[in-house]
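Practice problem: predict the structure.
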Amino acid sequence: MTKKKLSKIGLWAVVLLQIATPSFAGGSVPPPTEPIGNTPIIVPYMKYTARASANLIIDSKGKATITASIDGYKGVTDKVSINAELQQYKNGRWTKVTSFSDSDNSHRIRIYETTDVSRGYKYRVVAKVTAIHNGEKESKTIISSEQKY
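Answer:
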């Protein structure tokens, strides 16, 4: 074979490889996954929220530490807010013990609060986090794991 034919075959091979190679540049990005145990699940993509959390720790003296956070995307998220509620499971239902809230004209915020709780009940934190971009709101409700005291 001549050099000219080899060059044409090589050129066509490169073109075919470009066509056959999958690309995510067109917006066809696979959904994010999050493991639960050993099983990955698909989690919804949020436009202005990178991550958010709510946690509760109760020490042996009944001091409950409530933390909640939201991290938006720097340069995208204009404002964030958190409304967190400590709840107690009593008489077959969850009732509000106390609540905390904060907001900031930034892309991230944290709440760190402590309060005393009564012995003999289960507790949890329910936090509603909101991220805003150009007036468009995106909210998510997060529930911490339950803690018994």
